[in-house]
Structures
1.
Amino acid sequence: MIRCERSSLPPDPAVTGLEPAEDRRMWLDRRYRGLLVAAGLKAFDEVMATSQGRCLRALSDRENWRLELHHPHHPPRGAFLKKHHVRTWATWLRAQVGADPGETAGRAEARNVRRLTADGIAVMDLIAFGERLHRNGRLESFVLTRELTGYTPMDHFLAGRFKPLADRGSGRDGDLRALIRRIAEITRRFHEAGYNHRDLYCGHFFIKEDAPGSYDVKLIDLQRVQHRRRFRRRWIVKDLAQLAWSASRFHISCADRIAFMRHYFGVGKLGDGDKRLIRAVLAKQGRMERKLGYGP
């Protein structure tokens, strides 16, 4: 069954190993300092104010941007920027008493990137993050990560790479089974290390096929990732149900799903405890379908 273990990490891995920017409201990976300076993004306010890229989504409390960072001595590099901005009674009170910003969305995702990397789970590279609590209680933060060039979200990858079930016939696709095994192994390792994602949909696995049937996979969208030592079954069930719901029913068969669970549990034959967890996952998936409709 799923174990709870992870490597020993410093108290705040979000900051450990990063260099502070000049204004001390921003921390960055030293490998990207020259790139950020050349792009005019060397300080917190510059990052929060930038509009040099393409806005992918703008909500009341956050924005998602794709940037292209230019340097005179290097080719351009793509990056993704998440900006967060909220103002609540709690943030206003913290500002009035002179407290620090507390746990910000930017810091949370930066910490998860570095923790997961330390625990051997492949994710995107962290370039920088920053946070600031204004005197009026407005709390701002950001996280900047490197674009996964050459990778495709798994939901798009399935549709573009593999034949629909109606055209596949009765035979197995060995390359598809190799991908299913790889995703199951990553999910197992993620849960064994004590994490749950809370948004573990297919679109948050990014795939690059290095050779036919050989896949490099990275996990993204890590802001809501949690680490728990107890009472984790509910969250594991939720993760697996989200993954099952979002797996294309036009490309993933029942036999493929069973194969995923065998690889997830690391067994050739499912035991009674494995089957109990699967029934809980199917029940959760059914509730999602009633609420959200059938997946892709």
Note: DSSP finds ten helices and twelve strands in the chain.
2.
Amino acid sequence: MIELLTSAQMRAIEQAAILAGRVSGEELMERAGRGVVAALGDGAPGRAAVLCGPGNNGGDGFVIARLLAERGWQVTAQLLGDAEAVGGDAARALARWRQAGGTVAPLDAAGMRALPAPDLWVDALFGTGLSRPLEGAAAEAVALMAARRDREGGRIVAVDIASGLCSDSGRFLGPEITPDLTVSFHRAKCGHYLADGARGRLVVADIGLAHDGSAAARLTGPEDIPAKSGGHKYDHGHVLVPGGPPGYGGAARLAARGALRVGAGLVTLACPPAAVAENAARLDAVMLRPLPDAAALEAILADVRITALCLGPGLGVGARTRTLVAAALGSGRGCVLDADALTAFIDMPETLLSATHPHCVLTPHDGEFARLFPDLAAPLREPPKTGPAWSRLDATRAAARRAGCTVLLKGPDTVIADPEGNAALNAAVYASAVPWLATAGAGDVLAGLIAGLMARGCGAHRAARAGAWLHVAAARQFGAGLIAEDLPEALPAILRELDV
């Protein structure tokens, strides 16, 4: 399980270790510098330009400069601001760099342009504690570093986090930059996985700090997947997927297939009588029932063996959908509300949110989220003015509290939160990126996976975490060229490998 921290949590962990006498700030700086140099590997030395800020991130930079020079690199160090104003552990790191024969030049555009093309740029200007936008010389330096790397080659390593990137939200407070490598310390930060933060490659270096249980969120993982034991088919739950009119059945069939493949004992697709023949021609293991209206749904739900519902895929956005959703929520069963089940309430989101309960999962994409929670989405569309900036994690947590249920905000950085504030990220980024998952119907399968897991007895939050992880794992298992129909068929190999 990979835990993610905010900048405040990381500062608290460091300070607790220092105050307890387990380590000094200077030793932490040395460990951080060694972690960065180790992450660079054992390639031949070349030219390195180390850009240092006035705080502890800059102190890390001076340690890195010294260690690179010891390895034979030709190192140029430049400092933003006055060297005499550097204090604390950073001042001691600067002094050791000078004692080793290193020099420090003022950081300015002219000096950066005069440098022979570096093989390595070290971005040690500002780390995880940035609280205001980069401006002036700092912003100019970041932009020039990126431009020279793009034009001349070489690579950029960001110390802890790229300068100007908010470590809590992954949103830029200044010029955008894509480091080739980011080396963070102790734990990854939320901003390494959210929004624009997941760029290049990420390495988390161990700097010897104890784990204190702090976490803002965690990444989903295979540990979220429940084991399936033996028993009767009804022991593994029964999912009901209400479908839409003729010609719109594909989405519901995809959701139903996903629910069945993830281990639900039975799955029934219930559709308007006029759509029965169309769906019957395409279904075998999935059962089929006519569903003319909400009264018929209430009658079906008299069967207590139906343990979860998946509403929305291909359901339509009219009055029928609203009445079906109301009946489903009124039953108290586990419900996944996706797509049309959310869009049907765009003019009356309060009606939907007043009816949701802890056994629900809402699975909006960004547009649907903005219609349901306009005040929470608006700050995500505005350029941040301060840090920590409002994040997708903040917005999803707030939405879950308001709705009283689990909310899964879809995207490459999918966020899953429950009303108690528990949160997880399912981040299809870095080596787990799956751009081919952006295909029609993929979200319908995800909704079915979550419903299938809920039917088996998973709580809403765990089912959403597990479904999101399996969704990406299935896409990676299949590879490029994926279409939505391939996702359920990729699941058996994954489940066999996990031995569940």
Note: The two ends are 18 Å apart (CA to CA).
3.
Amino acid sequence: MTTLPVLQDACCAPITEEALTADQAAVLSARLKALAEPARLRLISLLAAAPDGERCVCDLTAPLGLSQPTVSHHLGVLHKAGLVTREKRGTWAYYAVVPEALASLAAVLTPAARS
């Protein structure tokens, strides 16, 4: 499973300023597809709001009302898209948001102020 690279701030200008290259569009599309699912958006929110910045899969099933395999699947999609990190500790996996990935999405989608 290949994880997408984190888009850097210098990667691309806002899409309202210049056209994306094919590679930039592919990465951006994959990230947006990963986020375009209600459970995954909620997972990003739960992870970002965690006091220590991370959560165990075991702590995410109840808030979502989903089974552990389903939550793990959604987290796997987010991980593959480069939006979350994963660290194995014993039998559990802990996930955290990659702030730079979310910031780069916001930067690409935010039009620059025109003077």
Note: The two ends are 44 Å apart (CA to CA).
4.
Amino acid sequence: MKFRRKKIQLLLIFVYLVLLSACEYNYIEYDIEPAPDSVSFGSDIIPIFDNSCNMGGCHTAGHFAVDLTPVNAYDDLWAKGLIDTISPELSGLYTKFYPPNSHADGRYDANEMVLILAWIEQGAKDN
């Protein structure tokens, strides 16, 4: 009886080790493009908002705290304190969407985040 129990325990350990060694992790490596030397608010950042934030009418005038419509986005981002040109990586516009704190639930891809950070690093100009 004892021998059989020991044999079953060894068999279970062996099966566990085989299953454990069979696990394979696939790490996703994103092809992140470097940011351009000059990022434009109008032609680079606004399209991100239009495609991700304004499609469902979420961040339009009167809906959420930040109005990200093309006419109001720049002024509202500054007024709400979401841009920090001294420490760009701490800007609310960037940290709010940077994983793992992603409010955007995957709405922004890595390249869009690179553009947003680069725009802030370049002085967050209304260009």
Note: Residues 41-121 form one domain.
